[in-house]
Amino acid sequence: MSQKKAPWHFLLVLILAGESVFILPFVLSRVFRPTVLEVFQLDNWQIGVCQSIYGMVAFLFYPFGGPLADRLAPRKLIAVALWMTALGGLVYASFPSFTTLKFLYGYWGFTTIFLFWAPMIKATRVWGGSNSQGKAFGFLDGGRGLVGALFGTMGVLIFSLFIVSEVSQASVSESRHAFKYVVLVSSAIVAFVGLLVWFFMKIDAQLEKDIVLEKITVSQIREVSRLPSVWLLMIIILCAYVGYKITDVFSLYAQDVMLYDQVQSAQVGTFLLFVRPIIGVLIGVVADRTRVTLWLVVSFVVSFFGAVLFASGIISASATALFFISILIVASGVYAARSLYFAVMKVGQIPLVLTGTAVGLISLVGYTPDIFAGPAMGYLLDNAPGIEGHQHVFWMLAIFSFIGGIAAWGYFQLYREQK
């Protein structure tokens, strides 16, 4: 079973789906954070609360979505998740109240996690087969980064086309009008990707039968929960995901500290998205040829040093070159860790057929930053406006990178005999 591989177009459609489903809840607010705060009349803490509610709903459904992914074909779950997520975009485009936004983010927590997350990870393991896990997950995250970058670029273009006055002088109503078209076009594309998944993300009938269980037993869940790799991955992913969440503030840093306007700030967010595919592909190829667990350690070390650069406060409006160099350092570490943490599942002796169940258990802890990271960043930014608040956020990144590096080193030591 492990020697069979799904075709290349399977991975390409999976990559497209893997980022499209998160465009509405996360990517648009990452690229257009200053604009989102303005047009929805939110502060940083409130947008953090919305993301926290998403995280709480996700937390409830991780343990159920995992076994579901081991019972049903990934293609069907992923397609339905995309269509339901796109429907939420119609509500988002109406610029609802803060209360409605909280319900919307809870809804997205259900569609993107219960129906989507574990099937995506399992489908990636299937494509990677016996010898290409690093490449599979590196291509997945790198490809998702490219898709996100293209969505970001498209969004910035659409936004700028519908702003009739100077960007720096645009009224709230003008910004809202332009952003509405960004959301509607994004929603239509997400729904279309669902169709591509349904019709083109098919695999060999025997392979699909091999990776689906008739039922999940308590003994199988107990078997997975006893694996040391599962417990270490909980810590590793938690720390790496905090880093990924913190990349949301780069566009806001560009506005608050570097004094960029809305379009320039959005372009910084988009630039960051273009870094992700390069890092994902490179680290995936290199990891398969050496030791994937060692590169996971290196990624946390790089992330730590990049965080310290920002936390030190030396990156100001007059240090443009240092600003972009430091972004590259942080992004290299954060995106490398994100590309590799599921690629080590095979080395950690987690059975392929129980991937969904394992992902459900790991994610229960690993993705709790969806609950606390947003409000924490919002509190730090709102209570110390300007560069000081951003320094606090990057000290937070440094701490989690340090802890993640220790856990990754433990994983490397435990499974170092396997290449």
Description:
There is one protein chain. 56% of the residues are buried. The longest helix has 31 residues, at 98-128. The protein contains 17 helices and no strands. The chain has helices spanning 8-31, 33-39, 44-71, 74-92, 98-128, 133-161, 172-200, 205-210, 218-225, 228-246, 250-256, 262-289, 292-311, 320-340, 355-366, 369-383, 387-414.
Quick one: CATH class?
A: Mainly Alpha
The Rg value, from CA coordinates, equals 20 Å
Strand content of the residues, in percent?
Answer: under 5%
Number of helices: 17
The gross shape turns out to be globular
Question: Could you name the CATH homologous superfamily?
Answer: MFS general substrate transporter like domains
What is the CA-CA span between the terminal residues?
Answer: 20 Å
Helix content: over 70%
Q: Got a strand count?
A: 0
Structural class: mainly alpha
How many structural units, i.e. domains?
1
Order of helices and strands: HHHHHHHHHHHHHHHHH
CATH hierarchy: architecture: Up-down Bundle
Biggest β-sheet strands, sense, barrel: none
The CATH topology turns out to be Growth Hormone, Chain: A
- Contiguous low-pLDDT stretches (5 residues minimum) are none
Q: Taking all residues together, what is the mean pLDDT? A: 86
Quick overview:
The chain is mostly helical and 419 residues long.
Index terms:
mainly alpha; Growth Hormone, Chain: A; single chain; 419 residues
Which helices and strands occur, and which strands form pairs?
Layout: H1 8-31, H2 33-39, H3 44-71, H4 74-92, H5 98-128, H6 133-161, H7 172-200, H8 205-210, H9 218-225, H10 228-246, H11 250-256, H12 262-289, H13 292-311, H14 320-340, H15 355-366, H16 369-383, H17 387-414
Helix pairs in contact: 1-2, 1-4, 1-5, 1-6, 1-7, 2-7, 3-5, 3-15, 3-16, 4-5, 4-7, 5-6, 5-15, 6-7, 6-12, 6-14, 10-14, 10-15, 10-16, 10-17, 11-12, 12-13, 12-14, 13-14, 13-17, 16-17
